[in-house]
Amino acid sequence: MAGKSGSLHVVMFPWLAFGHFIPFLDLSKFIAQRGHKVSFISTPKNVDRLPKIPLEFASSITYVKIPLPRVDGLPENVEATVDLGGLDVAVLKKAYDGLEPELTRFLESSAPDWIIYDFAPYWLPPIAAKLNISKSWFSIYSAFSMAFLAPPFEVLIAGTDPRTKVEDFTVPPKWIPFESKVAFKLHESRWMLESRNLDGSGVSDLYRLGSVVKGADVILMRYCREFEGQWLKLVEDLHPRPFIPVGLMPPPVEKNSLENNESWTAIKDWLDGQGKGSVVYVALGSEVSLNQLQLSELALGLELSGVPFFWALRNPSGLPGGFEDRVKGRGIVWKNWAPQLNILSHDSVGGFLTHCGWGSSIEGLMFGHPLIMLPFVIDTGLIARVLEENQVGIEIPRNDVDGSYTSDSVANSVRLVMVENEGKVFKDKAKEIGAIFGDQDLHNSYLQKSVDYLEKNRNESR
Ligand SMILES: *[C@@H]1O[C@H](CO)[C@@H](O)[C@H](O)[C@H]1NC(C)=O
Ligand SMILES: *[C@@H]1O[C@H](CO)[C@@H](O)[C@H](O)[C@H]1NC(C)=O
């Protein structure tokens, strides 16, 4: 633990999405464990929905609420992407940009040693620089996603990209010097093209990315060298910034956690009654909302597979008529809060049908589960390509152009991974790679080194 005089004050400033809050919070806990103070900044409604700060960190991590400025087109109750319900995310970005004056005042008055920010606040690095605050972009994106999404440094910071058509994103870019399958399908590519254009927030996502990379003294990245390490070397070659992998941050598994929580007890009772490794856990994360056809083909596919399933589905409206009755006993549609980590750690679970968010993929693989992959948003298609290349599972076959899939393709994929003999390779590979993903000591040592870096490289001229 650092001495009092040596301890740091670190400000965390994540983007307004739960998939970002949680890794920022996990990193905060680790920094706090080392004897440092953390101010975690978000808006009031988000702070109220975040996990309570555990008692052991009560004096070291502080949530700081900065009200989200109102902007045209942003409804009163929207403070995170999960609240958008189909609204354009650009309006939320615009409101987030409006946090600038209040955040600046906070930085001026509290004079922290470091600010660790997300991909969005393109305006922040110059402010921190003026205040002599050291600054880091924390990339919750993997090195292979970064290598694909961002052109080489000079091109990136100019806010440009040589890729100008959707088709350009369906092949690996020319700055990837080795053989790779990292590219989008046509149906996944449109957002990439859009992210190159100005949106309703007045800047493009590409410009945001360029600015946060350019302005970073160091880039912390949720990644490690033991899995697809060549990509880390590549992003370092492409961008003249120190990249420090913080490890994969597999969440700690607390045995007997939630012991008296009725939701978990009910889930556990059901899982206890299933055969070892027989259940496929189905969860597509909080940001994916399926349309009617996607939802019903997925449901019918699970039904057709004959495989026991536990489906965490917050909004079940649009399930095929009579579905839940027909699968009764074999399949559960769980409409409430579901503790993903507890479920994945249960012996009866033997596979994970996932949208391939980097966090979810890590959580599934740390328990050695083979994956049945159904990616939709942002970089999840790229993650699925890399994981499929590593044979830890398969992607559900889709139509390349519109991304549609059929109940048959769902059922066949689930059966292949869960029950067919040919699926053994995925189980074996998932165990092998899962041993890396779940290696707490390995990933802890990355976190240690990252905090060492923050301690040694603070700006002394404040
Ligand atoms: C179980 O725990 C979760 C998370 O802390 C909480 O949201 C939920 O309300 C609890 N459920 C019950 C029935 O206690
Ligand atoms: C930042 O550092 C410079 C150079 O050491 C110094 O002149 C300046 O006063 C500092 N500014 C603040 C706000 O601390």
From TrEMBL:
Top-level taxon of the source organism: Eukaryota
> Sorted alphabetically, which keywords does the UniProt record give?
Glycosyltransferase, Membrane, Transferase, Transmembrane, Transmembrane helix
Family matches, as Gene3D superfamilies: Glycogen Phosphorylase B
Name the SUPFAM superfamilies for this protein.
UDP-Glycosyltransferase/glycogen phosphorylase
Q: What stretches pass through the bilayer?
A: 6-27
InterPro entries noted in UniProt: UDP-glycosyltransf_plant (IPR050481), UDP_glucos_trans (IPR002213)
| One GO MF term attached to the UniProt entry | UDP-glucosyltransferase activity
Family of this protein? Belongs to the UDP-glycosyltransferase family.
Report the protein name in the record. Answer: UDP-glycosyltransferase 91D1-like
Annotated organism of origin: Coffea arabica (Arabian coffee)
Provide the gene name from the record: LOC113719474
